[in-house]
Amino acid sequence: GQTREHALLAFTLGVKQLIVGVNKMDSTEPPYNESRFEEIKKEVSSYIKKIGYNPAAVAFVPISGWHGDNMLEASTKMPWFKGWNVERKEGKAEGKCLIEALDAILPPARPTDKALRLPLQDVYKIGGIGTVPVGRVETGILKPGTIVVFAPANITTEVKSVEMHHEALQEAVPGDNVGFNVKNVSVKELRRGYVAGDSKNNPPKGAADFTAQV
Predict the structure, then answer these.
(1) What region holds the Tr-type G domain (predicted)?
(2) Percent of the chain residues past pLDDT 70, beyond the cut
(3) Do 2-104 and 117-198 fold alike per CATH?
């Protein structure tokens, strides 16, 4: 039940790549039972296919987290397991243990070529610095010196600095959760949900309609 929910949530949130670790293999009857693994693999393959995943591109790895079997190195307790292999358009991959399956995950392309979009999660007033909006870069690049516009309030200002984990950044890319200091804008003028964009490159604006996945 819970596994189905997790797979469905992952797919709905846009997670394209999946690894299925079949845990607690030490607790099967008898322990490390091949037929139990194959039964689970067949059942899970069936429902992830219905959700939208291609089972051929998913690594199924029998593991025991408690004993460390097939986690970092191949286990001697499951000689029947010849390894996992995946087929996808970017190429094939194979291995014996979970860490190899993790290493075979393809890193997603960051949409740095698109216009800047940074939805605000919060806005802080920090003594000695000033107004610091916080959020995750969804598309584009944010750099110090950028003239940003906040939609829908249409407030334009310059970014003085960009920080992530208390370190100054020369640029923030998609996926980065950042705080950035802006000039001459009070905390009261900005609020959670506003979207920052580059005033000179396709700034965010109102739309008559939009398409969403719900």
Answers:
(1) 2-107
(2) 100
(3) no
Greatest Cα-to-Cα distance within the chain, rounded to the nearest angstrom: 69
DSSP per position, 116-173: PBEEEEEEEEETTTEEEEEEE--BS-B-TT-EEEEETTTEEEEEEEEEETTEE-S-B-
Q: Yes or no: say if 123 and 155 are a contact pair by the CB < 8 Å rule.
A: no
Which pLDDT band holds residue 206 (cuts at 50, 70, 90)? confident
- CA 134: distance to chain centroid? 18
Domain spans in the chain, listed from the N-terminal domain onward: 2-104, 117-198
Asked whether the predicted pLDDT for residue 153 surpasses 80, the reply is yes
Residues 26 and 67: beta-carbon distance below 8 Å: yes
Please state the rounded mean pLDDT for residues 117-127.
95
- Token pair recorded at residue 129: 């610095």
Does CATH number 1.10.1200.10 belong to domain 117-198?
no
CA atoms in the 13 A half-sphere facing the CB of 160: 10
Query: Which homologous superfamily is 2-104 in?
Result: P-loop containing nucleotide triphosphate hydrolases (3.40.50.300)
